[in-house]
C-alpha cells in the first residue's frame, strides 16, 4: 500500500542516518574489544538488523585499513583480539588508529610516540603530519620530547606547573628562547660535543598549593622579589612570540 511504501522509505532514511553516525563509533569499538561482542548490541535495534552485516563490514574494513597504516602486522587478526593480548606498543598504535577513525578536525595527541621504537615513532610522526594535510586537521601535540616537537609542530606553548610560560613559532622558540624555564629546557637537550647536560635545580611545585607569583620563581636563577608576589601576564614581545616573565630581557 501507499502507507507501507511511505513507512519503508522513512525507515530506510532513518537507517541511513543512524548508520552514518554509528559507523565511526563502530570503528573505535571494534578496535577496543572483540568484534563479535561489540556488534551484538545492534541486535536490540530492529530497524538495523537488516543492515547489521553491512555496518559490521564497513567498521571492520576501516579498522583493518587504519591498523595497517599504523604498521600493525596481521591487522586482519589483530582486530579480533582483546587489548590484554597486545603488547604495550601495539596497544598504543591501536589507540592512535581509534582516534583517526573519526576523521577529527582536532587531534589531541598526548605523548603518542612514548614506549615505541624509533622506527615506529617515525612512522607515527609522518602519519600525524600527513593527517594534518589530507584531513585538514589541527593537532594539539603534548610531549616532553623537544626533538619531536621541533619536527612536528608549527607553534609551541611551553608550560610549567599548569601555566604557559612562552608561546612562539617553533623556529622562533628554538632560536630565541626568552623565558628562563624555556632556556633551561633547551640546555638540557643532548647535543654533539656536550658531555654534561645542565639540569634545573629545585623540585617541581605542589600544584595543590602552588607558589605565589610566578610559579617558576623558586627554581629561577633570575628571580627577584616581584616574581614572588606578582604573577606575570603573557605579553607579545615579537611578531610570533609571547612570554610571561617580568624580567625576560635581563
Automatic annotation (TrEMBL):
One Pfam family cited in the UniProt record for this chain: ABC_tran
GO biological process: monoatomic ion transport; peptide transport
Protein localization: Membrane
Keyword Transmembrane helix on entry: no
Domain ABC transporter: 2-186
Main subcellular location: membrane
SUPFAM superfamilies listed in its UniProt record: P-loop containing nucleoside triphosphate hydrolases
GO cellular component terms given for this protein: membrane
Keyword tags: ATP-binding, Cell membrane, Ion transport, Membrane, Nucleotide-binding, Translocase, Transport
Gene3D superfamilies given in the database record: P-loop containing nucleotide triphosphate hydrolases (3.40.50.300)
InterPro entries xrefs: ABC_Ni/Peptide_Import, ABC_transporter-like_ATP-bd, ABC_transporter-like_CS, Oligopep_ABC_C, P-loop_NTPase
GO molecular function per UniProt: ATP binding; ATP hydrolysis activity
Highest taxon listed in the record's lineage: Bacteria
PANTHER family recorded: NICKEL ABC TRANSPORTER, ATP-BINDING PROTEIN (PTHR43297:SF13), OLIGOPEPTIDE TRANSPORT ATP-BINDING PROTEIN APPD (PTHR43297)
Family statement: Belongs to the ABC transporter superfamily.
Protein's name according to its UniProt entry: ABC transporter ATP-binding protein
Native organism: Aerophobetes bacterium
Amino acid at each position: 500500500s501507499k502507507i507501507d511504501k511511505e513507512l519503508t522509505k522513512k525507515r530506510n532514511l532513518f537507517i541511513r542516518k543512524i548508520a552514518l553516525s554509528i559507523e565511526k563509533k563502530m570503528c573505535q569499538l571494534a578496535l577496543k574489544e572483540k568484534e563479535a561482542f561489540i556488534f551484538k548490541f545492534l541486535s536490540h535495534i530492529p530497524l538495523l538488523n537488516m543492515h547489521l552485516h553491512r555496518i559490521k563490514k564497513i567498521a571492520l574494513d576501516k579498522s583493518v585499513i587504519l591498523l595497517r597504516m599504523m604498521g600493525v602486522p596481521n591487522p586482519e587478526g589483530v582486530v579480533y583480539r582483546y587489548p590484554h593480548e597486545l603488547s604495550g606498543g601495539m596497544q598504543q598504535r591501536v589507540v592512535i588508529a581509534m582516534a583517526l577513525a573519526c576523521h577529527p578536525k582536532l587531534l589531541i595527541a598526548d605523548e603518542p610516540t612514548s614506549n615505541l621504537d624509533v622506527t615506529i615513532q617515525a612512522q607515527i610522526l609522518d602519519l600525524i603530519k600527513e593527517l594534518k594535510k589530507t584531513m585538514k586537521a589541527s593537532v594539539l601535540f603534548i610531549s616532553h620530547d623537544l626533538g619531536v616537537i621541533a619536527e612536528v609542530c608549527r607553534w609551541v606553548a611551553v608550560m610549567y606547573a599548569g601555566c604557559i610560560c612562552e608561546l612562539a613559532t617553533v623556529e622562533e622558540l628554538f632560536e630565541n628562547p626568552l623565558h628562563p624555564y624555556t632556556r633551561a629546557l633547551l640546555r638540557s637537550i643532548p647535543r654533539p660535543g656536550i658531555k654534561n647536560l645542565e639540569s634545573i635545580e629545585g623540585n617541581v611545585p605542589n600544584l595543590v598549593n602552588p607558589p605565589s607569583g610566578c610559579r617558576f620563581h623558586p627554581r629561577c636563577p633570575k628571580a627577584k622579589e616581584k616574581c614572588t608576589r606578582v604573577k606575570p601576564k603573557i605579553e607579545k614581545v615579537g611578531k610570533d612570540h609571547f612570554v610571561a616573565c617580568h624580567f625576560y630581557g635581563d
